[in-house]
Amino acid sequence: MRRISRITVAGAATASLALALSACGSTSTSGSSDSKGDKGLAIAYDVGGKGDQSFNDAAYAGLEQAQKEFGYETADVEPTEGETDADKEQRLVSLAKQGYNPVIGVGYAYAAAVKGAAEKFPKTTFGIVDDATINTKNVADLVFSEEQASYLAGVAAAKSTKSNVVGFVGGVDIPLIHKFQAGFAQGVKDTNPKVKVLSQYLTQTAEEGGFSSPDKGKTAAEGQIEKKADVVYAAAGLSGQGVIEAAAAKKVWAIGVDSDQYKQEALAKHKDFILTSAMKDVAKAVYNLAKSVEDGKPETGIVRGDLKTGEVGLSDSNPKFADDAELQEAIKTAKEKIISGEIKVKSS
User: Fold this and answer.
1) Which Pfam families does the UniProt entry name for this protein (predicted)?
2) What confidence category does residue 82 fall into, taking pLDDT thresholds of 50, 70 and 90?
3) Measured between alpha carbons, how far is residue 219 from residues 63, 246, 266, 268 in Å?
């Protein structure tokens, strides 16, 4: 386990850190270090960056937990608009060169960058969230069975709708988000075949803003609500805030994603209309990778979180959701059947 001095590096060292990362997006650090090997976890954010109230913020929560427990220096780096794979790789290389370990790319878009950086720094552990395509011995692929949590969200939607119409808004039309849509639609249909599911993707690529445009999410949700949807589930990163805003304005249910969006300060004025959130514990995955490095036994290969491990599931912060006995029983039954294998949830 690493032990660090609490002496603050001043002057040139601080300037070097700022300069090294200024070309790779903005960065915040915490803690202090007096040698390269003392530095700990670093994360590089996906589209939307810190403050998305969803995916990236969950990763940051894992970083905060690691920093607090291990008392080492951490770093978190923002993306830049229009960046290339080479830009992402340089960001990760810069962090590894400074001595951060592990270094995590938050999001599938970092696949090429993580692979390239990991090959350059074989003694550093790298992680990537939501990608399972990297076959490098010092990389942990942190992936989740999002379709399972989405199935439970579908059960909740089907039990809560009064109009028999529900909606799904996906940020970008890619296989990862197809998992959310497929699980949700299956959960709805298995619960009540009479319920219609309206589905829409905001963009074809992330570069078009599908994960970072609340206005796009709001417009899509408004369109579904006009078509009688009274429960709308968003898997769209920062764009999901617009979906929740639209649902609250029309006094229908929204279902959040990735984090417990009922509890998030930025969405507090809308929380009474957030039925639940289909969560995946990115924070736990990020923290666990940091802990494995700290313990000298780094995780590598595919590390999957699912209903059985407790790393995906539904939040129950909204009392109207938590206190609905019939709804809770339906969700419990579905969860048990998924874990036992009786229900096979589709991922596409």
Assistant:
1) Bmp
2) confident
3) 33, 8, 19, 21
Q: Widest CA span of the chain, in angstroms?
A: 67
**Domain-embedded: residue 238:** yes
Quick check: is 164 in a domain? yes
Does 313 fall in a domain?
no
Mean pLDDT value of segment 154-168: 98
Range of the domain at 90: 12-144+282-305
Give yes or no: residues 166 and 298 share one domain: no
299 in the same domain as 220? no
Q: What is the CATH number of the domain that holds 96?
A: 3.40.50.2300
User: Per residue in 170-207, pLDDT tens?
Assistant: 999 999 999 999 999 999 999 999 999 999 999 999 88
Q: Do 112 and 201 fall within a single domain? A: no
Number of domains in the chain: 2
- Burial of residue 189, with CB atoms counted within 10 A of its CB: 0-12 exposed, 13-18 middle, 19 or more buried: middle
Q: Which two tokens stand for residue 87?
A: 């830009």
State whether 122 and 40 are in the same domain: yes
Cβ contacts of 111-114, under 8 Å, gap ≥ 24:
112/85, 112/88, 113/85, 113/88, 113/89, 114/139
The answer to whether residue 30 sits within a structural domain is yes
Tell me the pLDDT tens digit for each residue of 15-45: 333 333 433 444 444 443 333 456 999 999 9
What average pLDDT does the segment 303-330 reach?
Answer: 96
Q: Residue 234: beta bridge partners?
A: 169
Nearest CA among 123, 188, 129 for reference residue 153: 188
pLDDT on residue 220: 98
Q: CB within 8 A of 25, min separation 6: which ones?
A: 44, 77, 78, 79, 80, 83, 91
